[in-house]
Amino acid sequence: MKAHLLPSKSTGSIHIPPSKSMSHRAIICAALAHGESIIQNVAYSKDILATIEGMKQLGASIRKDGSTLYIRGVQSFQQLAAKEIFCNESGSTLRFFIPIFSLCNQDITFTGQGRLLDRPQKVYADIFHKQGLDFTHTPSGIHIHQSLQAGWYTLKGDVSSQFISGLLFALPLLTEDSTIHIEPPFESRSYIDLTLEMMERFGVKAYYHDEFTLYIPGNQQYQACNYTIEGDYSQLAFFAVLGAISDGITLHGVTSSSKQGDKQIIDILKQFGALIDTLKDGYRIHPAKLIGQAINLENCPDLGPIVCVLGMYGEGTTHIYNASRLRIKESDRIAAMEEELRKFGTNITSTPDTITIQHNPNPICQTSLYGHNDHRVVMALSVAAMASCQEAIIEDAQAIEKSYPTFFEDFKKVGGKVDLL
Ligand SMILES: O=C(O)C1=C[C@@H](OP(=O)(O)O)[C@@H](O)[C@H](O)C1
Ligand SMILES: C=C(OP(=O)(O)O)C(=O)O
Predict the structure, then answer these.
(1) Residues 71 and 150 in one domain
(2) Which domain holds residue 196?
(3) Which residues form a coiled coil (predicted)?
(4) Is 302 a catalytic residue?
(5) What angle do CA 301, 311, 185 make, to 5 degrees?
(6) Per-residue model confidence as pLDDT tens digits over 330-381
(7) With a 6 A CB cut-off, is 403 part of the ligand 2 pocket?
């Protein structure tokens, strides 16, 4: 799909879609729970559909009624309905599933597409091998066939927090207690808070023993719970930046008490000089003079692409650091943003874990933009192009379906003029 954008300015308001991270977690906890849970405000992006389908294969019964899911948890880990679990392109789905599905003690192959199976899994390979268990990772899939055991786990903290979340979901279901020690630097820590919060809502606990050590009592049981998914700050970020660099915007549907790390976009925008009113259920963003800043992505990697766009519109220099994980997402997001923002005439450079962007006072894009099969790159480029007030084409725009299938509908609601070809 190509997105053909015509010059326009931001206006009006939208309701932000439900959090993808919280949806994965709620669906998984409900699928592991005793009894029936009702999960409300679910949006069916490709990543969330992969988690729903996988949990059905595990034996959970999941019924959809509009944006509500009725989930009856697995009765036993012997109900596995398939030997191949397709995770599409969702890193969260794959890395959350591996320890959970290991509990079935059966031959299982996890498959996917796009870049999924090229993304690092060595943290799990090392864990399985250390316990004497098979873990075979080939370009066509990841194969396991025995259960992880309770005990002491040591993990690198700077590859992906999704390994820690995956273990946190599964270890409470083993008979004995476990400990996870995270070797610093511990990045994306905010996502562990989301995992712990959701587990606790479903009656399962794990505790920080110290800053880098989590203690997980064994022999626990998830209990059904009714839960409404909160709005997604990672998606809000695209529209919040659009409002600040274009002509203002009002965003509804999020809670300011959220634990999502990407809530940091509000502080980042304020740091740049944006004028923001906090509303009962969102924010009003006013256009203002913006000044480039130094931004730490340690706890909010998914903000990377849109903060690059903010840097292009902020006066002076923006320096983004602790960004190496952006290279191991759906695309190498640093390389992708460099290539695409240069098409606007922007001066942008990088090192393995930093990005430096100079203000571009006159962004003119004379060639087609490319989405790099990455939803966050497509959404960031849509914002960059709209604020440039020039016509633009974004190729590979269907990548938005991974997390935000209705992105362009919302884009139009706030003034964007776009034809999808
Ligand atoms: O746990 C989660 O929901 C996520 C964790 C983050 O990944 P890393 O921990 O690999 O940085 C983030 O980038 C991803 O989009 C979602
Ligand atoms: C990286 C992302 O997701 P995942 O790791 O689950 O594929 C994302 O949504 O930007």
Answers:
(1) yes
(2) 20-228
(3) none
(4) yes
(5) 30
(6) 999 999 999 999 999 999 999 999 999 999 999 999 899 999 999 999 999 9
(7) yes
